């Protein structure tokens, strides 16, 4: 007969028993804790701000849903990566999808990298045209969500960019900032403000918060100058003269005797501290960033003013664009018309636009709403200016962006070129913009070749299809 | 338990869970990814067989080689910087006359208990240019230190190495600590009596004794280094950093697969990494066998 | 002197190691306004020059009231404990088979285990998501638990542990005495690898507790999210709510810290019992 030694369970340690105990208890709890059944439309968003914002609107919708005979809406906030992963998988292998999804500008490319017919979002072009929405909204806002001539999402915003400056410092220096028309004027007229306060040989105040290692800033400047990575037919135009000129200018702003820029990154402790100290006088400010500053930097209240960006050429574009969100409805949604109604409620209605502006300073893309009076309310944070009206004035000039899946790649390669240009400038002690332009051109051509090689591999995406 | 398993069938029963789970959840997706790596796909209807084209492009892809170089540098740093630090810490902690040793052990081990998200966020704050803890402290201790030192703009790899040092030194130290405790004290004492200096004692007695643990830890470290992805990705703000200084092979795989959407190419990358690691592991084993 | 030098070095290193934790603790009780203005705690007129009135537990309160963190904590405990117990059992069984039996295919399985160690996880992300969907396991508890049941790493560790700690003679003797295989496993073999059991339990618990990449995609309903996913979700697209993130991280550290305290000795003994002779 088998010897029965001490049973196994006695010789496990206390910790192991605790884990087993936790396992048993938690299994019980998890199995018995009910999960609320969600019927109705699924709505995925990636931004907590948006989620907080939509919750009351959805609550209203859900309250009157039974009476109106429409399904309820369930909001889910997940991180942008997770959302896109689920979306891609849903489109390509039919795993579960939401009925409505918000997608950010930088993530939209991957959904357009296959044949047009395989794009998972519903083609809204005809419906938008029929309901007149395509003309009712700010035209450039459709740019990033249009692939090969068809529109796949409703734009959430316009996001024009203005120049935010420390009015207190500028006025104390006796400079009339409204005299400035171009960036050259800016560098010249504002130069006296670059000062060294503590006598250590390094300036303690610079003019502009802009750094050549920030891909978003580089793209913003290129767009404002009229450059782009892709043309209207989605062909690669990275190595254009305009782009080269912008890169050369940026590097000359960041290095050398004519340096006017410093790196005070947004959303960082060091950047915020430097801003409070007045380390930089001006920043590039899209409308959503104005809202962020109001909540994150209350100490700058009453000291900031906005004005259109200085232009690259006389009479040129006074604004740029940064960021953007769209709402797309996947093709196999349960109830398209209910989803479409809901989407119109949260994107096109006046009450929601008003709340959006008041909470986040973001202006609506709906042109008819631009005459609303809530955009004219003076803001004490902006020294009595009404940011809404100022942004709206610039909205028609917002550059139109492309939706190429290779945009992020192009942006990164252009950034590499910018960094290489700066290294060349430092190594050759040449900081003049005109001297840097040919070098920038060459570097951009290399960048273009790299992106082109990658693009040539894609057998599905043929640029310049039906427009 | 009254089940009568014969010693003949027992092993099959015992190994069954592993085999089942492995075949279903690892082997099957693995084989699928192999097919994926030979195609270009976008959706169930659009799929073209491209054969070895993905691999050909991959071998000529400068960004893959950059990623490989970065990962290799990081792996080398793990083995040649992190492990000696862990060993050093273990040596320091090994003196049995030290009070509060268990507490110290806990302190050094605790960084590996936190998640990667936290490490990335907090080191993002620590590495900031003017107000980050590292620059501020270094500047206070050495006023000549540039308070604007651009860790995450120009010195990404050193920053990553420092962050992973904080995270994993304690973990490896624990291994070395237990190994050191198995080194024969009599042998050490005898050597000391014979007049051998501390370095001599270390090199000729301690090192050979901890050799098996060291090999294991090195292997673990290397495998872990090649999987590096989330830490640089979150630290650099969901990107590879300026000039791709933070690009690792797994990050490149992720970017290709999920940001550009080219799953076939991503699979090719994954397979190439696996093949390279496999070759390395086999060579290492052959060398080890050869030595015996 | 000889004692003081290593002790002081250790102390300095220990303090340096603890700095991020101190930062974490301070950050989780600071208001968002103060977050950027002070490195650790906001300066003020209170005791030690700290503005104690600025300390807030608001972040913690918000996590529990608005974001149902309690449920996420329970989910985390569930996944971590169930997976670690089941995985430990399966890996112990697998390691035992590979170490103590001669059977056909043993060499192949052993090599399979070693190969599985070097496969990059990211390679399997997309195919395994599809697989889970086809098996109907998406957004289910089983879908989270089943794939994690027998990690190759665990089988490898237990194989090493069994080889070095379980003498064949003992097994033979027990078999001669008429002991059944299953009973042999539970009452003789497992007690002999007890350290490794504790160690692996903790490793797996830790790994599962902090894992968020997989769960974030596989689980679709927020009520099933574990803590790690919930905390990862707190990261904003551009700006972060640092107070919330720090408070969430504090909450997720405390249980594992406690567990490690309890299992410390086991853990260390177990880890090295496999590696020392392996």
Structural class of chain B: mainly alpha
Q: What separation lies between the terminal Cα atoms of chain B? A: 44 Å
State which percent range the strand residues of chain B make up: under 5%
Chain-averaged pLDDT of chain B: 83
Major protein interface: B-C, 93 and 88 residues
Per CATH, the superfamily of the largest domain in chain A is Periplasmic binding protein-like II
Query: Low-confidence stretches of chain A at least 5 residues in length (pLDDT < 50)?
Result: none
Strand order of the largest sheet of chain A: 2-1-3-12-6
According to CATH, what is the class of the largest domain in chain A? Alpha Beta
Quote the distance from N terminus to C terminus of chain A: 86 Å
The largest sheet of chain A is: 5 strands, mixed
CATH topology of the domain at 60-114 and 168-291 in chain B: MetI-like fold
Domain module count of chain A: 2
Known CATH architecture of the domain at 60-114 and 168-291 in chain B: Orthogonal Bundle
Let me know the CATH homologous superfamily of the domain at 60-114 and 168-291 in chain B: MetI-like
Helix/strand layout:
The complex is a heterotrimer of chains A (467), B (292) and C (278).
Chain A: H1 14-32, E1 41-45, H2 48-68, E2 73-77, H3 80-93, E3 100-104, H4 125-130, H5 133-136, E4 146-147, E5 150-151, E6 154-155, E7 161-166, H6 167-172, H7 183-189, E8 206-209, H8 215-224, H9 241-254, E9 261-262, H10 269-277, E10 280-286, H11 287-296, E11 304-308, E12 325-328, H12 336-348, H13 350-360, H14 387-394, H15 407-428, H16 433-457
Parallel strand pairs in A: 1-2, 1-3, 8-9, 8-10
Antiparallel strand pairs in A: 3-12, 4-5, 6-12, 7-10, 7-11
Helix pairs in contact in A: 8-15, 9-15, 9-16, 15-16
Chain B: H1 10-36, E1 39-42, E2 46-49, H2 53-59, H3 62-93, H4 101-109, H5 116-126, H6 133-141, H7 151-154, H8 156-180, H9 185-193, H10 198-226, H11 230-235, H12 249-260, H13 263-291
Antiparallel strand pairs in B: 1-2
Helix pairs in contact in B: 1-13, 3-8, 3-10, 3-12, 4-8, 8-10, 9-10, 12-13
Chain C: H1 4-28, H2 32-35, H3 58-65, H4 69-100, H5 106-117, H6 125-134, H7 141-145, H8 152-165, H9 168-176, H10 181-192, H11 194-210, H12 213-218, H13 227-233, H14 242-277
């Amino acid at each position: 007969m088998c010897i029965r030694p001490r049973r196994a369970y006695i010789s496990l340690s206390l910790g192991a028993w605790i884990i087993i105990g936790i396992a048993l208890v938690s299994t019980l709890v998890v199995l018995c804790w009910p999960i609320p059944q969600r019927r109705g439309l699924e709505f995925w968003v990636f931004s907590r701000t948006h989620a907080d914002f939509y919750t009351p609107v959805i609550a209203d919708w859900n309250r009157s849903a039974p009476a109106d005979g429409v399904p309820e809406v369930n909001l889910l906030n997940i991180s942008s990566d997770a959302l896109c992963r689920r979306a891609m998988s849903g489109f390509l292998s039919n795993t579960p999808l939401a009925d409505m999804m918000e997608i950010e500008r930088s993530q939209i490319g991957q959904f357009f990298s296959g044949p047009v017919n395989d794009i998972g979002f519903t083609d809204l072009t005809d419906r938008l045209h029929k309901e007149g929405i395509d003309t009712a909204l700010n035209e450039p806002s459709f740019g990033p969500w249009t692939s090969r001539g068809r529109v796949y999402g409703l734009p959430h915003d316009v996001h024009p960019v203005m120049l935010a400056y420390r009015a207190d410092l500028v006025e104390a220096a006796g400079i009339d900032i409204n005299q400035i028309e171009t960036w050259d004027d800016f560098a010249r007229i504002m130069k006296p403000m670059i000062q060294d306060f503590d006598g250590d040989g390094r300036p303690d105040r610079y003019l502009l918060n802009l750094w050549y290692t920030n891909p978003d800033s580089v793209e913003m400047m290129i767009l404002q100058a009229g450059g782009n990575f892709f043309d209207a037919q989605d062909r690669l135009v990275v190595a254009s003269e305009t782009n080269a000129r912008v890169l050369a200018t940026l590097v000359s702003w960041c290095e050398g005797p004519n340096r006017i820029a410093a790196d005070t990154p947004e959303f960082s402790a060091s950047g915020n501290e430097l801003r409070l100290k007045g380390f930089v006088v001006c920043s590039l400010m899209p409308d959503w960033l104005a809202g962020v500053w109001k909540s994150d930097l209350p100490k700058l209240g009453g000291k900031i003013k906005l004005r259109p960006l200085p232009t690259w050429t006389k009479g040129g574009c006074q604004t740029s664009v940064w960021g953007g969100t769209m709402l797309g409805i996947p093709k196999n949604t349960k109830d398209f018309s209910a989803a479409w109604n809901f989407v119109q409620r949260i994107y096109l209605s006046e009450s929601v636009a008003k709340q959006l502006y008041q909470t986040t300073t973001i202006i609506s893309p709906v042109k008819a709403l631009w005459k609303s009076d809530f955009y004219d309310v003076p803001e004490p944070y902006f020294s009595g200016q009404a940011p809404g009206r100022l942004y709206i004035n610039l909205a028609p000039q917002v550059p139109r962006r492309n939706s190429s899946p290779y945009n992020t790649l192009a942006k990164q390669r252009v950034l590499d070129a910018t960094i290489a240009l700066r290294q060349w400038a430092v190594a050759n002690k040449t900081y003049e913009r005109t001297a840097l332009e040919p070098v920038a051109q060459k570097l951009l051509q290399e960048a273009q070749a790299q992106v082109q090689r990658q693009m040539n591999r894609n057998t599905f995406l043929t640029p310049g299809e039906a427009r | 338990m009254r089940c009568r398993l014969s010693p003949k069938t027992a092993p099959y029963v015992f190994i069954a869970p592993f085999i089942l789970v492995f075949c279903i959840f690892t082997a099957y997706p693995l084989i699928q990814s192999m097919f994926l790596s030979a195609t270009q796909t976008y959706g169930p209807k659009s799929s073209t067989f491209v054969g070895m084209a993905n691999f050909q492009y991959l071998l000529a892809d400068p960004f893959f080689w950059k990623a490989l170089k970065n990962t290799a540098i990081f792996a080398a740093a793990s083995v040649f910087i992190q492990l000696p630090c862990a060993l050093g810490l273990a040596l320091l902690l090994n003196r049995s006359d030290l009070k509060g040793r268990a507490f110290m052990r806990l302190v050094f081990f605790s960084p590996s208990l936190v998640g990667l998200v936290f490490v990335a966020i907090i080191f993002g704050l620590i590495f900031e240019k003017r107000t980050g803890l590292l620059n501020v402290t270094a500047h206070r201790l050495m006023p000549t230190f540039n308070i604007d030192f651009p860790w995450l703009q120009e010195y990404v790899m050193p920053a990553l190495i420092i962050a992973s040092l904080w995270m994993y030194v304690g973990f490896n130290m624990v291994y070395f600590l237990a190994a050191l405790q198995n080194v024969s004290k009599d042998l050490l004492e005898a050597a000391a009596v014979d007049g051998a200096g501390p370095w001599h004692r270390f090199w000729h007695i301690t090192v050979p004794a901890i050799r098996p643990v060291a090999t294991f830890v090195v292997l673990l470290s290397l495998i872990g280094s090649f999987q590096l992805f989330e830490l640089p990705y979150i630290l650099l703000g969901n990107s590879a950093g300026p000039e791709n200084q933070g690009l690792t092979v797994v990050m490149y795989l992720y970017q290709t697969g999920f940001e550009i959407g080219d799953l076939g190419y991503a699979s090719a990358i994954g397979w190439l990494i696996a093949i390279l690691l496999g070759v390395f592991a086999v060579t290492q084993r052959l060398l080890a066998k050869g030595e015996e | 002197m000889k004692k003081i030098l290593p002790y002081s070095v250790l102390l300095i290193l220990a303090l340096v190691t603890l700095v991020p934790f101190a930062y974490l603790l301070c950050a989780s009780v600071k208001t968002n306004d103060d977050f950027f203005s002070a490195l650790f705690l906001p300066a003020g007129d209170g005791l030690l020059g700290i503005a104690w009135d600025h300390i807030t537990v608001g972040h913690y309160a918000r996590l529990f009231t608005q974001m149902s963190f309690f449920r996420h904590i329970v989910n985390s405990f569930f996944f971590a404990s169930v997976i670690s117990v089941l995985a430990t059992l399966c890996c112990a069984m697998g390691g035992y088979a590979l170490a103590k039996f001669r059977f056909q295919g043993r060499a192949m399985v052993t090599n399979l285990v070693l190969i599985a160690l070097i496969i990059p996880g990211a390679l399997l992300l997309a195919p395994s998501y599809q697989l889970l969907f086809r098996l109907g396991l998406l957004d289910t508890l089983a879908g989270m638990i089943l794939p994690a049941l027998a990690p190759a790493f665990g089988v490898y560790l237990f194989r090493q542990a069994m080889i070095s700690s379980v003498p064949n003679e003992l097994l033979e003797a027990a078999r001669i005495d008429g002991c059944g295989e299953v009973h042999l496993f539970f009452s003789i073999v497992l007690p002999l690898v007890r350290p490794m059991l504790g160690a692996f339990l903790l490793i797996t618990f830790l790994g599962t507790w902090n894992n968020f990449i997989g769960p974030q995609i596989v689980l679709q309903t927020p009520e099933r999210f574990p803590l790690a996913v919930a905390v990862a979700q707190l990261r904003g697209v551009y700006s972060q709510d640092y107070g919330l993130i720090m408070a969430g991280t504090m909450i997720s550290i405390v249980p594992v810290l406690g567990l490690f305290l309890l299992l410390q000795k086991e853990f260390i003994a177990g880890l090295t019992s496999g590696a020392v002779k392996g």
